## 1
Amino acid sequence: MWIKPWTFKEGFLIGAGLLFAGLALQLSVGPVAWDVFAWPANGIMMVGFLAIIALFFILRKKVYAFLFLGMYQAAIPAMVYAVVLTIIMGLTRQQAGGTWLNDMLSFWPFVLIYVYIAVILGVIILRRLMHLNSWKRDVPFLLNHLGLFIALTTATLGNADMQRVKMITAIGEPEWRALEQGGAIKEMPIAIELKKFIMETYDDGSPKRFASEIQILTKTGKNIETTVDVNKPYEVDGWKIYQYGYDTQMGAQSRISILELVSDPWLPLVYTGIYMMLAGAVCMFVIGGRKRV
């Protein structure tokens, strides 16, 4: 054990060490407080994180542990731990402020494993960039790995800047206040007035469709009239407005509509990473098809 070259045993032990370190942090300081990493702190952390990865790569020939990060013996165990934790996340109901397994995004072992994977990805990407020799192999590889790195890091750091609030709008009454998840009242940069609540029902009276005709006023001077439907949000000034609920006792005669407003400024970067991975997959398919022909 720990005799060079390191194998999968060391890879799994490193992952287990991160899990235990995460549990120790969870017990000592509590869950990850993402609010602390809101902008500009997360931007500074991103720069620092990239610098650390570059330092690991530069020192890889002097420090064997850094060299090991670029090997599949480190990557595969890390992915196994990540898959197991992600499956647990998918099988348990996730809610802010829940128990450890019910709030995985704030669970230190989960976060540390994914940070470890991001470090491994960064080192592997730099190693590949230093040894480019064939676009047929290198371009799909870099699109896949760099796309995953971008999606993973921006989704993690951007979590601190994501805002999700609910606004209760009423007919003829512009509303600019919303409720945060903890129940606090937040003044919004936009005001919304409900013009008409729309409901369509099945023959048995159960809701088939419900939507809201609304008027939106922004601080930038915009005056917008639109319809927000379930799963068909409207986006304005960085906020997506979703149809969330209504007065169930009044049904189709409801004079209020509950809207959910979501702001996620890092989401375009996450999508960029996802699109890069899709492009990498297409490149691999096209190149593989040409080889068979």
## 2
Amino acid sequence: MSDHVYKTIELTGSSTSGMEDAVATAIAKANESVRNMQWFEVIETRGHIRDGRVAHWQVTLKVGFTLE
């Protein structure tokens, strides 16, 4: 196994469907311009309440990718 160097970025995804969808949205968008993503860590979860119900999720991620 070769040695790797990783860089991390912070992303915030949002969704009206749920936390997992917010994560998937952030990763899918980042995948359009960031290569070699390897892992993610959820570092913060927030939500918006409307009329006594969860209306919107926001999930902040730390994403690691391998440098070329």
## 3
Amino acid sequence: MISENERKLEIFKDEALVHMDALYNSALKLTYNEDDSRDLVQETFYKAYRFFDQFNHGTNCKAWLYRILKNTLINKYRKKSNSVKHVDFNTVEPFLDTIVDKQEFAETYDENTYKHSVSDEVDAALSRLPFNFRMVLVLSDIEGFSYKEIADIMGCPVGTIRSRLSRARKLMYRYLQGYARKNGYIDSEKSDFEEIEADESIY
């Protein structure tokens, strides 16, 4: 007879861990640092496992994980102390063993896939976007979330998501004009993009 923790871990593997590669590659696009990305993903899944009882099964687990990832990333910027809350290690030890094994595959996946899936120019342009713009662009154009799902992840109205996504795409167009012209995607010497003053805050 399997224990409650073993049952929880099996369900977590089926519903949550299957999205690890997607979150890892998104984390790379948000942090541009492999070590930070691995730490961010590990912390995201660690929190998700601890609070998995609060997840409404049958809803979008991937969107729930991205919401945790977003909050975790922002909290890292806001953190002002290194204090660590006490956690019962016995409740998370089986999960930690699982996620370490899973992340070994994520590193291989990144090396063989991510570095060859986005051109250097596009990747560099994406890195220049303010955090909130980059996040909605990744969620929409790379991960394929709906406006409503992104709004739930980001914790803001759908109208705000539409506005940020529009401005993010315009900024990408602006940053990539030289690249597009060089590769024959744009013939005109003049641009028709709307000038934007982007908020450089991560919040």
## 4
Amino acid sequence: MTGNRVLIFAGGRLDPGMLREVRSDDVLIGADRGALFLVEHGMKPHLAVGDFDSVSAEELALIQNNSLELLACDPIDKDLTDTELAFDLAVRRNPAEIVLTGVIGTRLDHTLANLHMLLRAAEQGITCAIWDEYNYVTLCGSVCRVEDRGYTYVSLLPLTPEVTGITLDGFMYPLHNATLRIGQSLAVSNQLAAPVGTVHVAEGWLLVIQSRD
């Protein structure tokens, strides 16, 4: 399995509209119920992975019959979430980009763990985003472009204890050489003032969250 971009569909909140973002050369990985979502919408995952404890025996058979490869693991004897298993398998293929969807849901612990995967990808030089109907989340550690994707707000939150040298261009509320520390909400609910904004960071890792209600 090779590909320049890997899309991971996990078992959180899933939006059928995300299927319009799938390119013909994308590698599709379904994590647990995310694999069922793909199959039920006429897509054939390149890989279905997980303990599949959230699907029935009939649904698992449907996944297996409509996936190019299935990797099932014991729901008890495992150390990683299904999403992280999928993420690790995606990283092994050394793609240029990984997109995660269905990774935000009712479980805050899972959501936070999935946000941390953005840092793991960045440390390996892989562009990574969390993308769904309400959020588009990336990570900035130097300079990044923020394109207008139709979301209302752009919020900046530090993923490291402190992020320094933050400068914003093309935003309604600019910052110049600012510092953000965990627990501060100074940069929440900003907005783009141009089709593309730029975020500069001197040191640290900054979550860039485009969102709408």
